[in-house]
């Protein structure tokens, strides 16, 4: 209801509409007098109706005139309504209200002390200015509250705490936990006559489930909440970094994808720059044109990682178009770059150039070691890159502990019959249970041509196996030339960026020579992503498209299908310059992507990589044995080392609800870096780094959330106010039925609306009688 309408109704009805909603109607006339008045009123109404029907009230007119007879019912109704209204007034109607006893009740006032109250959208001033002006010791509202109630003022952001003066608030809270603040006040004032709770806030709340529980508890106690919304429901021009996603860890020398989601208001068509920075130094940049209002835009920024160590990065968008809120233009992330060498097992079923050039492509990469197991004859193998002379001496691993030490497995042109059924199951589990990556290359003995249809490995493949073109290893299988092209997903896939920038990479893919395939792969499974396609140049096949590179998640790992047999042509083709690094770069980036996030036996994650100082951090560890079977009931401890170097042990307990999962928590008491190392009493451990710092969360989606505050007030029996309507708060609190109350009765017989209505009825009757010649 608008302010002007509310005031107009108060003029007509004597009291504000909110009081009618709180009270109930009654009559103060004694019962005998009430019955007598009702009887007299009934008689008078009957006389008026009879008189008009019988024509007794005619003056100087012809009896039975049709026009006048049609007016008689309306005249009778007007006279009857006037009589009834007079009788009701004589019955002395009253509005019965439960009013708080002055100075006997308490009102708790919660003032939002978070950083979002610094947003300057309250008539060009910070929202905090309204809180100071509204609740300052000399303000009319504070004086009015103090005349009726004992006022207790609390500040709240993550928790509530009493304060002596609103003027002392710094408005620097990192998180808003309205539910926790309401619970704190309810518990602290338990047993105190509480008339109501006043919340002055912009409605930001980081824990909606806790707010729902707090609302239920207040409603059960009968304590209403009166919410005062501060700020604008639309903040004008604004761009916001809504979400940032990047790998938690990567190998030194890799290029990773930083996925950024931007939202904006009022900036459609404007250009913005997405920057990835470290200590103020720009590491990567990507330009973007903002779409229509309300549409989010995703931006993928390739980020090279030349140095090992923990990188504290900031993803930032410089302010666009004079934004009033620039604090939501950035988000922080941590990236652990490790100087390690990951092992990849490459099993090739026959001597061919693909194995030779693939190993050569990654030979100088200090982060990768490709171990080649190449079958040279039945039961004989060439082993290159093994750590021990006895490694793989019997061929492909027959035990899980041997296979699971690798991060990725590449299968070349090797038929399904080269494996036992248990080895095929083990390969599928290598992906789904261990979380490793599997690459399936094309060849005469691969895919359907290698007899993999119906095997345990088929289900893991991202492609659908068609009818084979020939028997495994047959020289009669025709090779089909395909012109390789990037899909839209492939163009955005960082491992496929083979040039310094996106435009140059697209151009390079367009000029690469064609490859050949002997595998008929045209369809992918639901959920698979196609990165490269190939168009055949065989006119007899009509130039149909083939799948060249596709992948899917399978359990905890990834499976990649690459059904071509000669990527080495991108190194040795006559059109490729000697110094060209496309082939090397492609395989290095693909294998780094596939090995970067492969899980270890012990993994630990935190609820927030950037907790605010003083915030509780939830830890969750996943514990598995060497065969990656979940371990329950183990003794798992997380050692937390804080900014000062002091360490403490946090026990993690088995969650019971999930196999191998352990949980615990600690408080990040100080700002600065934390290292959390989880162990289970053996050599296996996992470490993560956190960085406690003041949070920017308060500035994200920083517009006034009026619907949340209205819902809070409605569900507890209170009201919602704006700065323009908050003046009625003291009176509404007085009649909110909370605390110690006394009954008040307010007369309704003398309402201005009553006299206006009575005068209108009598004037209407007179005017109608005059028009009909009955006056």
TrEMBL record:
Stored InterPro entries: Class_I_gatase-like, Filamin/ABP280_repeat-like, Ig-like_fold, vWFA_dom_sf
Keyword Membrane: yes
Origin superkingdom: Bacteria
The keyword Transmembrane helix is annotated on this UniProt entry: yes
TM segment ranges: 33-52, 73-95
Keywords: Membrane, Plasmid, Transmembrane, Transmembrane helix
Protein name in the entry: Glutamine amidotransferase domain-containing protein
